[in-house]
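User: Hey, my collaborator sent me this sequence without any context and asked if I could get a structure. I don't really work with proteins. Can you help?
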Amino acid sequence: MLFGNRIRDKVANSTLISLPEWYMLGLIAYYSKDWDFEIENEIKDAVLSGKFEDFNHMEGKDAEIVGFSIWHYIEKVHGKEAIPNIVHLTRVSKSADSGFLFALGMSFYDFSYDWIEFYNKKFIEDEKNRNKIDNKKSILQLTKWDSIKFIYTTQKHKSIKEF
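Assistant: No problem. I've predicted the 3D structure and written it out in structure-token form, which is a compact way to encode the shape of the chain:
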């Protein structure tokens, strides 16, 4: 896809283009794995810890995670059809920066700012909206005779349940 269909094309063209590791590993992960809570949690941890600040120099698993999050972001914001366009234009222009510029109409620098802001807003809002459990109010332990009963409240319905 990126370097042509024949092996000869792939070898000839691969020497002419230099891509960051996140680009290739992330693209492979995007097409081969489903987005799930484990991937999202890894991305959330990396975003909230500031690990993605210098993502162009990441290697291995970190590069795969950042790349997966970039391609997933493109699908969510620009549509799934934008991904093959970026890949094709990267191949034609022999530059990932140009591929993003021609396909999305924005520099990779601007794109990367939007991408990290998307995840920052998503995960910071998640953290703000997370209900902290107040142990004193949410779970009470009562003892009657020889049995133990627990009374708890549910956050969703604000009701008291007993078991």
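In plain terms: Residues 26 and 68 are 4 Å apart (CA to CA). You can pass these tokens on to your collaborator as they are.
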